[in-house]
């Protein structure tokens, strides 16, 4: 696995990183003792580190690099844009061609109720925007009491104050005394882990009706919105039973609360449709987006706003006192436009639905036969392997939770495959350009990793 060249002095990079870089979502103290892995270049689905080792990027960066790494076309589009108009803002009655073109493009690509987009630089900022937009919407509708937003335990909506609060990660809540007031969480539709004796569909209905029960307790007149990822990503690729989303959509409609589908991971082809909500046949009122919008080449996110909400603001809202210096940054819009051009030209969404998606799913699900795997699940190109101590018994978990997952993740790196560990689940979300040969390679490396992890536990 070690390549010939060593252009970068790893020890020097590690020492400088340890001295000056405080990492996100990292125990920086522990990392500094271990030594960081330094990624120096990337091409297609492959990453190279400072020692010349190559890894198959099974996570598409952080669930974002749909078109693969190293696409010169995006680089050229950004360079051209920066030479023409490096930066200008979109506040105070100004706009520019790339932000106009991207807004129009997103309106064309998204479901019919969406004709407008508010731009941000990230998914977290998109969810902070959602938070203020939802509450302001109900003020404008003459129902200022409708303020509570319901999210789900183990949901992830980013790490700003609103993002952390809307998400249901208790470890995150504990840092910063969150959630902020006015957020309520209900159980997740995690059949494998929490479904008990119920069938998946019974459990899906039960989990959906937890929303209705929460609305009854909180009071319909007090609840503003429900926010959820079509498939929970960071929570461990929690794929809801088929019965779940139609029931959630019915409840939101019947009880007059806004439905927010967080599409930051599921959007832009990940599930084999442009948006995850299309895969589940639901019609949200707001869709936070980011990641695959630019394949991560430059930071850009946003909120797709359904006409029902946008028109309330436009007709009676006056000024929305909200925005970011980089909302609709010209270079980021140019990167997103070039990325979307590639996705359309190479039919990447269709490919996930009809070709590479089913191809990888079949092989991935076969890993479910491994003695260490309790369930192998995948929709589109996002999947998980649940590692269990006793195959066939969903009630038993490894203790302490997460140790086996971390071991498996480290072994996977050693085998040249990036998988992410969430508790004791191994996650993949590869670039949508993955070829059949690369899919075979990914599965072979994952299988070897499972064998080695299993052997290490004996
Ligand atoms: N929403 C979801 C569903 C996510 O998965 C993420 C990031 O993983 C976010 C929001 C936050 O996005 P960002 O990290 O760009 O702030």
From TrEMBL:
Keywords: Aminotransferase, Pyridoxal phosphate, Transferase
GO MF entries: pyridoxal phosphate binding; transaminase activity
Record's keyword annotation contains Transferase: yes
Short name of any one Pfam family annotated for the protein: Aminotran_3
Keyword Transferase found: yes
Domain of life: Bacteria
Database matches in InterPro entries: Aminotrans_3, Aminotrans_3_PPA_site, PyrdxlP-dep_Trfase, PyrdxlP-dep_Trfase_major, PyrdxlP-dep_Trfase_small
Cofactor(s) the protein needs: pyridoxal 5'-phosphate
Family the UniProt entry places it in: Belongs to the class-III pyridoxal-phosphate-dependent aminotransferase family.
Protein name (Swiss-Prot/TrEMBL): Putrescine aminotransferase
